[in-house]
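Translate sequence into structure tokens.
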Amino acid sequence: MDNFFERENLRYAMIGSGSWATALAKLLLNNHDRISWFVRDQESIDQLKQTGHNPFYLQAVHFDSDRIDFSSDINEVIDASDVLLFTIPSAFFKDEAMKINRSLEAKFIITAIKGMVPVENITIAEYFNTYYGVPFSRIGVVSGPCHAEEVAMERLSYLTLSSKHIETARSLCDVFACDYIKTIPGTDIYGVEYAAILKNIYAVAAGVCHALSYGDNFMSVLITNSFHEMRDFLHATHPDANRKTSKSAYLGDLLVTCYSQFSRNRTFGIMIGKGYSVHSAQVEMNMVAEGYYGTKCIYEINKKLNVDMPIAEAMYKILYEQKYPAYIIKQLSEQLQ
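Result follows.
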């Protein structure tokens, strides 16, 4: 098997400019002399060049802009790179991806997007495979448990790097590993992508329940049941006898997203629980809560699978049917075990 990362002088590109993109760009530059970086907004590029800081996200992170080739043209960045790391929020991913008019035949795709492509209800890896013909053997997935804020502060964190072949996954680990980033190789590209989507939904649920004054005892039961839903959905979607959902990429990522002060999905849920409308919460946060979009995608997929997912269904009722959160969570509490 050809390991793409055994090739010499590979050129890396960051596609996206949010907080996760900023944190991962920092990691790439730890191990590589220079990168290309697609930033949609020219004003942000000008600020990054002048100050070395992203003006909107993780502003404490400093970049040596002389080592970065910025562009607001996604195709220009693709032409200049071999490995493309996508971090665009899923809600906006397709708008940018549809601008790509270059062949991706000779590229390696890494997705760090923790959401699905709306309407099609497919993962980012599935999208590149379906619409651009990229084989799954040339797609890698970055997953947690890891928050961008703690990467920026250089707190010890763990990343799971998955690819279809373990040798490629180990090579991906070398791309990101450093003193404060431990890496874990894996081959479950399907499972870790879906787990990243699901844990955001459950983090929204945790936030809603926190806002409604449910305590730690209830929260432990909620998250335990969330883990069971995740495990059952993954098995129904992509069965894998070697998958161990108790590992960090599944259970660990679920825990940190449900409990952490840095979890934007938990924050979003807290606002919904306090009575904010979805739109008002999104405007005030000024960040994308992937769990909102993932809730609808998983709900649509599960119409065919019929997996028992009362927590995910409760979030759909609250977020998309505008049902009263206190009433829905009270109903949910009768179903948890």
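Note: Residues 295 and 316 are 6 Å apart (CA to CA).
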